[in-house]
Specification:
The protein is 25% helix and 37% strand. The chain is an alpha+beta fold and 178 residues long. It has one domain (2-143, 168-175): Chorismate lyase (3-Layer(aba) Sandwich), CATH 3.40.1410.10. Strands 1-2-3-6-5-4 form a 6-stranded antiparallel sheet. Strand 4 (131-142) and strand 5 form a beta hairpin.
Amino acid sequence: MLDSKQLYVSTLIGVNWETPDWTQLKTTDKGKWLLERHSMTKRLKLCCAILDVEVLSLHRCDVKTLTESERNLLGYEVCLVREVILSGDNAPWLCARTLVPMSTLTEQEADIAQLGAVPLGQRVFTQANARRDTIEVATVNIDGNILLARRSRLWVNDKPMLVSELFLPRAPMYQEDN
């Protein structure tokens, strides 16, 4: 399973992000997932008894390894990279890759680097001023599965981070249309 998890992370790194057609997307069940502006963690928890987080990697990346679009959204600085799989009732639902500029990891937000198995959304959306902007979407083909992904910038106490999320084949967003 480790190979598929790394494939998911690699997919998030290389995906071609696009600005969504808001008018079309907001009328579909899948679009409502992709355009979610609040906590994805909270939304996923509504679909299961137990939501688990498996940390795949936690490391620093140099600004040179960021893509141009990542630098445009976050600025030109070293980032902490957090890669995780969120599973609902033992089914892998979401692969997430978060870029957190080191300047974000100061004061109240210093604990974000130490989250471990705590979902990022659970931590970020406890702040009254947390918000999400710059939502982008993508469609990818992994092993014959057409999967959806989104990338959005989160702000907490006016400090940014960039979250890329790949909805895995067993994610609730795909089950709602059935």
